[in-house]
Amino acid sequence: MFTGIIETTGVLSQTMASEAGLRLVVAAPHWAYRARRGDSVAVNGCCLTAIADVGDDGNMAFDAIPETLAKTTLAGLLAGERVNLEHAATASTLLGGHLVQGHVDGVSLVEKISTRGEWRVRLRPPAEIMPFLAPKGSVTLDGVSLTLAQVSPAEGWFEVALIPTTLEKTTLGAWMPGARVNTEADAMAKTVVNFLRHFAAMRTTA
User: Fold this and answer.
1) Are 7 and 87 a contacting pair, CB within 8 Å?
2) Is the distance from CB of 24 to CB of 111 less than 8 angstroms?
3) Residues 142, 91, 44: CA angle, nearest 5 degrees
4) For residues 22 and 74, is the Cβ–Cβ distance under 8 A?
5) pTM for this structure?
6) Cα separation of 146 and 108, whole Å?
7) Are 62 and 24 in contact (CB under 8 A)?
8) What is the DSSP letter of 70?
9) 187 closest CA partner among 148, 110, 132, 143
10) Series of mean pLDDT values for 10-residue runs along the chain (206 residues)
11) DSSP, residue by residue, 77-135
12) What's the CATH class of domain 8-87?
């Protein structure tokens, strides 16, 4: 479990094929947190498991399985790219964002970026994600907890507004139109929609 509050950014130093799918090595030597083997770390919003203790060089290694590669942008990352990092929350973690599972629902495309007045981004998610998005609700984009500023179910897009701190502390300021973005809808919204779709009618006819 995560909060969507990015702790630092790292650099993807290497990718290679592995028995599990794809191995990613992320360098974050300045990060005070040192992952141990088996720890969960969100990399651009994807919950990954460290396969070894972090060494003195600050490199972390993760294996991404085919299901993860199919649902996220990880397979398309190139060496040298920055990634957002957050370690798993604990019982004492300040919940500054919202409850994030690190289970990406799909990839959204950046359609438009406006920087006049405020930094506002319009994204188009996969159609199956739209029912989980509500105005002023929560969404996680590349691991960052954000509030939905506007949602258009009829046209199939949503918008978020980015504050200067987010632009400074994360990779979101580097987005360009056409960028592919890991998207995780709010877990509570998904639970409610799933219940209404599959069980509400059964209760009313019982």
Assistant:
1) yes
2) no
3) 10
4) yes
5) 0.93
6) 14
7) yes
8) H
9) 132
10) 96 94 96 96 98 92 96 96 95 85 97 94 97 96 97 97 96 97 94 88 59
11) --TT-EEEEEEPP-TT---SS--B-----EEEEEEEEE-SSSEEEEEE--GGGGGG--T
12) mainly beta
Are 21 and 8 contacting, i.e. CB atoms less than 8 angstroms apart?
no
> What tokens appear for 77 in the block?
């990352």
> Can you give the pLDDT at residue 101?
94
Alpha-carbon distance of 171 to 144, in angstroms, equals 9
The single residue listed with the structure tokens 């495309």 is 109
What pLDDT is recorded for position 37? 97
For residue 165, give both structure tokens: 């701190």
185 C-beta neighbours (distance < 10 Å), count: 25
In this structure, which amino acid lies at residue 101? Answer: Q
In words, the CATH class of domain 106-195 is: mainly beta
CATH 2.40.30.20 maps onto the chain at 8-87, 106-195
The two three-digit tokens of residue 180, written as one number = 């592919």
